[in-house]
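Inverse folding, one chain.
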């Protein structure tokens, strides 16, 4: 796989404002926020997208979703609600080819997302 900026962040080679980190994942603020709160949750493991995950990744995916809920709580999004989304491939809107989940909130979010 080609390395990405998210891979460098996951390895601690690129400095960002982390809002969460553990041995399996990191979360940080998006540099181009699409909502008042826009966080990215990424695995430290190198995976391109959901299209690449297998049965052995089930625990990691569950952990990533738990991290999304945790950082949403930290940001005070529980009462108003929030959205968790991942993009897969170019047509799906993926621009960095390292699995990542967006946590968006702080305002009413429309549907469909566009």
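Residues assigned per position:
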């Amino acid at each position: 796989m080609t390395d990405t900026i998210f891979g460098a962040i996951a390895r601690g080679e690129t400095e960002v404002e982390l809002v969460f980190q553990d041995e399996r994942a990191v979360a940080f603020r998006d540099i181009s926020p699409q909502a008042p709160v826009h966080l990215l949750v990424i695995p430290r493991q190198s995976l391109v997208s959901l299209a690449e995950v297998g049965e052995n990744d089930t625990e990691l995916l569950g952990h990533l979703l738990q991290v999304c809920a945790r950082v949403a709580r930290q940001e005070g999004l529980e009462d108003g609600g929030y959205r968790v989304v991942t993009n897969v491939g170019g047509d799906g809107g993926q621009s960095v080819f390292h699995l990542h989940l967006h946590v968006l909130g702080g305002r009413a979010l429309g549907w469909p997302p566009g």
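DSSP finds two helices and five strands in the chain. Strands lie at 18-21, 25-29, 37-43, 82-85, 101-105.
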